[in-house]
Design brief:
By secondary structure, this protein is of the alpha/beta class. About 4% of the residues have low confidence. It has 2 domains: 220 residues, 3-Layer(aba) Sandwich (Rossmann fold), CATH 3.40.50.2300; 148 residues, Rossmann fold (3-Layer(aba) Sandwich), CATH 3.40.50.2300. Helix content is 45%, strand content 15%. Strand 6, helix 7 and strand 7 form a beta-alpha-beta unit. The strands form 4 sheets. A 5-stranded parallel β-sheet has the order 2-1-3-4-5, sandwiched between helices. Strands 7-6-8-9 form a 4-stranded parallel β-sheet, sandwiched between helices. Strands 10-13-14 form a 3-stranded antiparallel β-sheet, with no helix packed on it. It contains 15 helices and 14 strands.
Length: 397
């Protein structure tokens, strides 16, 4: 009898200790994206730095639901099979409650079925491919959210600019042959049609091509005076260098990947200053943004990557608020909270007031973007009479 009482007491103590340990267990978040391989890797690195800073701040303020947030990071080296493997590892083995990333749009498209099947929210904070946040089917639950740029939103603004530009008579479209480039090309063709623009030429090029003069000569022969380019940073630079080779400099607009220092380094200062593009922030920072930059700037590969740190920071704050509102960490509850956030989230890019809904999973849209050009090695805000004259009605989708 005495042994039984001792045994029962030991079991009770063990259960209590186990319950306390479970209660104290950290809430795991995951990042799955390229941190080392592609031209966009520094974007993933910056996003992780921003996420880590936000987690430190949330934990310093008491954490969420009485627990600390932790981050589990996986490098997918820009390879879809590796990215798929990472996603399964983070969800099944690490038991993360939400995943952030990826760096490359094509990888998100390769694995988005996994979080949707397993009902684990993803909050993208780098990749901008339009289809990433679309549901798998019209009636399906959608666990893909985003706090980052969106290709279609950018394209809508760029095409509005082209439509309003009196010097743009013949328009050409160019894109790299990756999933990112071809997704952007689809958006460009769709929204050119919406604006009543018929492209005079459409050309594609490989992400590793160092000479695209053949494609540009076709543009030139077609009389193209305005080119919109959708590619990563280094490939856009190769387009600019090829323009120089044939002394052909049409008005050039591009994807936001031109903000990457790999573009600036490959193009050189003079050519880098030619394209016009959009991003979520310029190097004219708010006090809050500057405070974060002072904190992590020395760890960035280049100051131009800082926008991704802001995306990473804000995405964690949004996730933390969803966990707090849900009162638990299971996926369906977090999804429901994200789609109906009751309290504003004071981020560093903006205040997020009900950023998502059941059908709208983009926290940042065209109205949150700024027009940018490189100037003297810095990402400077740009304006002209066309931009100042653009209205929400002009930006058609």
């Amino acid at each position: 009898m005495k042994f039984n009482r001792i045994y029962q007491a030991a079991v009770a103590v063990a259960a209590a200790v186990g319950a306390m340990a479970a209660q104290a267990q950290d809430i795991k978040l995951g990042y799955n994206g390229d941190l080392s391989a592609s031209p966009s890797a520094q974007s993933g690195q910056a996003a992780v730095l921003g996420m880590q800073a936000a987690i430190e701040d949330v934990n310093a303020a008491g954490g969420v639901l009485g627990k600390k947030l932790t981050l589990v990071v996986r490098d997918d080296t820009s390879q879809p099979p590796k990215s798929i493997q990472n996603m399964s590892d983070l969800i099944d083995n690490e038991k993360v409650v939400a995943v952030f990333g990826p760096t490359n749009s094509g990888n998100a498209m390769a694995w988005k079925h996994i979080p949707n099947q397993k009902k684990v929210p993803v909050i993208g904070n780098v990749a901008s491919g339009t289809d990433i946040t679309k549901p798998m089917s019209p009636s399906a639950d959608n666990y893909m959210f985003r706090v980052s740029m969106v290709d279609r939103e950018q394209v809508a603004a760029l095409m509005a600019y082209v439509k309003k530009n009196p010097t743009s008579k013949k328009v050409g479209l160019m894109a790299e042959t990756t999933g990112y480039g071809q997704g952007g090309l689809k958006d460009m063709e769709d929204l050119a049609k919406v604006q009543g623009i018929t492209p005079a030429a459409v050309e594609r090029f490989g992400v590793g091509d160092t000479d695209v003069t053949s494609q540009l000569n076709k543009m030139k022969a077609a009389g193209v005076d305005t080119i919109v380019v959708w590619a990563q940073g280094t490939p856009i630079a190769q387009v600019m260098r090829s323009m120089e080779k044939i002394n052909y400099f049409p008005t050039t607009l591009s994807s936001w990947a031109a903000d990457n220092v790999t573009f600036f380094d490959a193009a050189g200062k003079t050519l880098a200053e030619k394209p016009l593009f959009m991003r979520t922030v310029s190097e004219h920072r708010t006090p809050g943004q500057q405070k974060l930059f002072d904190r992590i700037g020395s760890k960035l590969k280049a100051p131009s990557a800082f926008s991704f740190a802001l995306h990473g920071y804000d995405s964690v704050l949004v996730a933390a608020q969803a966990i707090k509102q849900a009162g638990k960490t299971d996926g369906p509850a977090l999804k429901a909270a994200l789609e109906d956030l009751q309290a504003p989230v004071n981020g560093l890019l903006k205040t997020y007031t009900k950023p998502f809904s059941k059908t709208q999973h983009e926290a940042l849209t065209a109205k949150d973007f700024v027009w940018i050009k490189w100037k003297d090695g810095k990402l400077s805000p740009y304006s002209d009479p066309i931009i100042t004259g653009l209205t929400a009605v002009d930006i058609k989708q």
